[in-house]
Design brief:
alpha/beta; 9-stranded parallel beta sheet; 13 helices
């Protein structure tokens, strides 16, 4: 599979962009465990144009992340075109347009999946962005606005005509939000349409090697994007690749290995963001490495409230000391976050 001239090999795995989740240190960890492509948290076009520090900070990418995309969202054409040009100066490998976020404050004003209610505008915005930048442009969207408007096949063909390099489809409508099971049937229809020439990436509910392999084999997609199942589990990419190459399911990481991974993640976050912001961003990740450990509440509280790196490392060491022999194969999977 290729995005523009970027050769990703066969059956690549993508990390889904997730607000407040796919920060640089988490992208680094997912990349280390085998993610072929990562994408930033979505960035507001208005924020980039206003030079808002929070939006500008999301443009920061590292060479170790490549290939990496910057995802932007907005509801007006001109600001989105300008935002794409600004994003291009950060030197990502591609620009991704978010037409999939279902959150009310985004979709309700016509951005994200709200754009699916105005397909001509969606197509025009995409065309203008493709023309404005020299990088490949990709799109992430959903099946449709609701059950009565699952028009993704028509949308996919129209978006392809704008010159995008690849299309990611989440297997739910906007009305579903994250409820119910993702429906990959229409994703398969898009991929198998005789006029479809660009790569199609499927997204939704992939949480294991067998599930990823099924989506590749049953629906013929070029790539699989994994989102919510990565939260507290960046090693899922290693698991999926192991299964697809051997047919065997890897054992879950031990408590000691999870602690080592959490420490590496913490070190990277501190290195990239500094002590204050680095620790704040790690709070959303740290305790999720240990979902399923019994009587973990007091330790979890330390991990999500401490502002001192030494205390955090000490708390992580205590996890091995107390739960080192616990069988993580019986642990409850991490709670799911929101893909955008």
């Amino acid at each position: 599979m290729k995005i523009g001239n970027i050769d990703l090999g066969e059956k690549p795995l993508f990390l889904a962009p997730m607000e407040d989740v796919t920060d640089p240190s988490f992208r680094y960890m997912c990349k280390r465990f085998g993610a072929d492509v990562v994408t930033t948290e979505f960035i507001s076009s208005d924020g980039l144009i206003r030079d808002a520090w929070k939006s500008r900070a999301k443009l920061n990418i590292d060479e170790a992340e490549r290939p990496v995309g910057i995802q932007i969202y907005g509801h007006l054409v001109e600001p989105m075109v300008e935002a794409a040009r600004i994003a291009e100066t950060a030197r990502p490998d591609f620009i991704d347009i978010n037409f999939g976020c279902p959150v009310k404050k985004i979709a309700g004003r016509g951005a994200g999946s709200g754009m699916m209610r105005d397909v001509p505008l969606m197509v025009e915005m995409t065309r203008r962005i493709v023309e404005a930048v020299s990088l490949p442009v990709t799109v992430k969207t959903r099946l449709g606005w609701d059950e009565d408007s699952k028009n993704i096949v028509d949308i996919a063909l129209r978006l392809q005509d704008t010159g995008i390099a690849a299309l990611t489809i989440h297997g739910r409508t906007r009305a579903q939000m994250y409820r119910g099971e993702a429906d990959w049937t229409l994703i398969g229809e898009v991929k198998r349409h005789p006029d479809m020439r660009i790569p199609i990436i499927g997204n939704g509910d992939v949480d294991s090697g067998p599930k990823a392999a099924e989506m590749f084999d049953r629906y013929g997609v070029d790539g699989v994007m994994i989102g919510r199942a990565t939260y507290g589990r960046p090693w899922i990419f290693r698991e999926v690749k192991h299964y697809m190459s051997t047919g065997e399911i890897m054992p879950q990481p031990s408590v000691a290995e999870r602690v080592a991974i959490a420490k590496e993640h913490l070190v990277k976050s501190l290195e990239i963001k500094g002590e204050r912001v680095g620790i704040l961003e790690m709070r959303r990740h740290l305790s999720n490495y240990f979902k399923g450990l019994p009587d973990f509440k007091s330790t979890r509280l330390k991990l999500v409230t401490s502002s001192d790196p030494a205390e955090l490392f000490s708390a992580l060491d205590s996890v091995v000391e107390r739960w080192g022999d616990f069988d993580m194969s019986a642990a409850v999977p991490p709670s799911l976050s929101h893909e955008v």
